[in-house]
Specification:
CATH topology of the largest domain: Topoisomerase I, domain 2
Number of domains: 5
Strand order of the largest sheet: 1-2-5-4-3-6
CATH architecture of the largest domain: Orthogonal Bundle
Mean pLDDT: 89
Structural class: alpha+beta
Shape: globular
Length: 649
């Protein structure tokens, strides 16, 4: 009761206050926030800020091929003196930061003999625990691309409609200690389904035994882990079947013995330079047989031993150039993990401990939280990735400026969980807890009411521009005289400082394909500052163009439709007839096609040859990169021609 009441009290009041502030100059700008959704959003925004600030650093790996007795193996150079540095996590033992150093190693080792030593050891791997809702959602997203919302709906249907799964909205991955007999009964019923031979093996070989990693009363809350019931399924949809198979496989596999491996670590030393080779083979499939069959699906290759006395030669070496990469964006799977383990982000040990069992949200609410952030246009799906929108950046910047970033911090959730636990143990009272919540609510409202942009401005990093000083407010850049105000987020897109400077300097910038409408739909446009106001210029619009000035510039070729010259305009390439308003015969080609910006040379190729060179880096609607030639027919229609597919070996 305390948790839901405090959620409601802070959420509704903070949302009203921030909506009122953002709507103070007219219009209605709904600004939802809450105890769980806003800290969740801050995870995405902080990650995206890190990605934007990230500067890639080039490095090289040196790969070597060793030969002996007509056989060969590969090795990677590594620094045997390397030590991890917490302050510089990008440093790795196999990374060489100077190309000349990598080249020197190659020159030094090529064709030279190697001294080889092998270390062998066995290892084992236990089956992951049974599913709770969050782990089921996470894995279904990774394996099948199912959203957390869809996975919950599928599991709920398997529970309510088909009666083949136990209650899915659970946060436990364990079973009660008196469940050994029910487990045997369920395994017995599973002998009549797809994984029957494995269920039968578990029963016949008596794999089900008391085990605190599976049966543990202390780890079971209101509901135990998700497992199949004794009823076998019929009439399941394709997605329902996938979820049911996941649960059944895990339920059977968890009782099987660990998988056992033989690991080989080989060091090949050439002229004091060390190369590492690792081999791994599966000895006993154990639980992996339930997933991959008797062989365990192992794709690992055995590392053949080098006979004593045989000379090993470092035959070939190559340098592989690459660069460091930023942390990846969250997917639904990784965001669920971050929400579940958000206590790790809290420095106070007592508060972090209070969040261990809960995290941000509950298994039953996390899917709804993500869907709400999508619905409110705080984030968008880009393939499997979740990307925060400009609206999210604005909200976080505003909370920081208003000094109410507690709304976006897991610390608040940690403190609430800590005090709610104290209430359960009789060391704190509901009355005192709710009074603190009311005080926090009043503080948030007062901070919003008293906030003024002008009190929180500092000179922008790019100031001055053309002799005019500019200041950075939480959500905009403002000139010293107040005549120019440019929002940091335009059309849902976070603008870079360099782009702002170009706008102030009178340039038309773009086109950019990652603007978002108020409905969350992406659109492409160029941007300019006209009469101190921001204007969007669309590919098919001529209203804001100086047509006569454009026609005086050099043309790129002639339209195949009517032979009029084709010009470069801010947002598109347009024929003279299109500039004159001829919608039937006018040729218009957008400057961006599937996230790839077309250069003037590509348009010249289309107009003269009907086909471009091979253009790399188009992005499909499913967010997959591809390469293609563009073709232009006599009616002005653009089509793709794809390179031949590589044969699968």
């Amino acid at each position: 009761m305390c948790r839901s009441e405090s959620d409601w009290l802070i959420g509704i009041n903070a949302t009203r206050a921030l909506t009122g502030y953002n709507s103070r100059k007219g219009g209605f700008f709904l600004t939802p926030c809450g105890r769980v959704q806003t800290p969740t959003l801050s995870l995405l925004v902080k990650r995206e800020r890190e990605r934007r600030a990230f500067v890639p650093q080039p490095y090289a790996n040196v790969l070597a091929s060793f030969t002996h007795d007509g056989t060969s193996y590969e090795g990677k150079w590594l620094d045997t003196k390397f030590k991890k540095d917490a302050a510089r996590p990008h440093l790795k033992a196999d990374r060489i930061w100077q190309q000349q150093e990598a080249d020197a190693i190659i020159e030094k080792c090529k064709g030279q003999p190697a001294q080889v030593s092998d270390t062998n050891k066995k290892s084992s791997q236990k089956c992951p625990p049974l599913y709770d809702l969050t782990s089921l959602q996470r894995e279904a997203n990774s394996r099948f691309g199912f959203s957390a919302k869809n996975t919950l709906a599928l599991a709920q249907a398997l529970y309510e409609k088909h009666k083949v799964l136990t209650y899915p909205r659970t946060d436990s991955r364990y079973l009660p200690e008196d469940y050994i007999k029910p487990v045997y009964n369920t395994l017995q019923s599973q002998t009549g389904w797809q994984y029957g031979k494995f269920a039968e093996e578990a029963v016949n070989k008596k794999y089900v035994k008391p085990n605190k990693l599976i049966f543990n009363n202390r780890k079971v809350s209101d509901h135990h882990a998700i497992i199949p019931t004794n009823k076998l399924p019929s009439g399941l949809s394709g997605p329902e079947l996938k979820i049911y198979q996941m649960v059944v496989q895990r339920f059977i596999a968890v009782f099987f013995p660990p998988a056992e491996y033989h690991n080989t670590k080989r060091l090949s030393v050439v002229k004091d330079e060390t190369f590492l080779t690792e081999g791994k083979i599966l000895l006993k499939a154990g639980w992996k047989a339930v997933y991959d069959g008797p062989g365990g699906g192992s794709k690992e290759q055995a590392l053949e031993p080098v006979p004593a006395g045989v000379q090993v030669t470092c035959a070939k070496l190559k340098r592989h150039d690459t660069e460091t990469r930023p942390a990846p964006r969250f997917t639904e799977a990784t965001l669920l993990s971050a929400m579940e383990n958000s206590g790790k982000l809290v420095e106070d040990e007592e508060l972090a401990d209070a969040m261990k069992e809960r995290g941000l949200g509950t298994p039953a609410t996390r899917a709804a939280i993500m869907e709400k952030l999508l619905k409110e246009k705080y984030m968008v799906r880009e393939g499997k990735e979740l990307a925060p929108t400009g609206k999210a950046f604005e909200l976080l910047a505003l909370l920081e400026a208003m000094k109410i970033e507690v709304l976006a911090s897991p610390e608040m959730t940690g403190e609430w969980e800590y005090k709610l636990n104290l209430i359960l143990s009789g060391k704190f009272t509901r009355k005192k807890f709710m009074e603190e919540i009311r005080q926090l609510t009043r503080h948030i409202i007062e901070q919003v009411k008293q906030f003024e942009d002008s009190d929180h401005q500092e000179e922008a990093a790019f100031s001055p521009v053309s002799g005019v000083r500019f200041f950075s407010a939480p959500t905009a850049y403002v000139s010293e005289d107040g005549d120019i105000s440019i929002r940091k987020v335009l059309g849902g897109r976070v603008m870079e400082d360099e782009e702002i400077v170009r706008l102030i300097g009178g340039e038309t910038i773009g086109p950019y394909s990652n603007f978002l409408s108020k409905r969350g739909k992406p659109f492409t446009a160029s941007v300019k500052l006209a009469k101190n106001k921001i204007e969007f210029i669309f590919a098919d619009s001529t209203d804001d163009l100086d047509v006569e000035a454009i026609k005086k510039t050099g043309h790129l070729g002639y339209s195949p439709i009517d032979g009029t010259p084709v010009f470069d305009t801010p947002a598109s390439y347009m024929s003279g007839s299109a500039l004159d308003g001829d919608s039937k015969k006018g040729l218009k080609i957008g400057k961006i096609i599937l996230s790839k910006q077309l250069e003037p040379k590509h348009i010249t190729q289309l107009l003269t040859e009907g086909k471009t060179e091979l253009i790399k880096g188009f992005i499909s609607k499913k967010k997959r990169p591809f390469d293609a030639w563009l073709l232009l027919d006599k009616k002005g229609k653009i089509t793709f021609e794809f390179p031949p597919r590589k044969s699968r070996k």
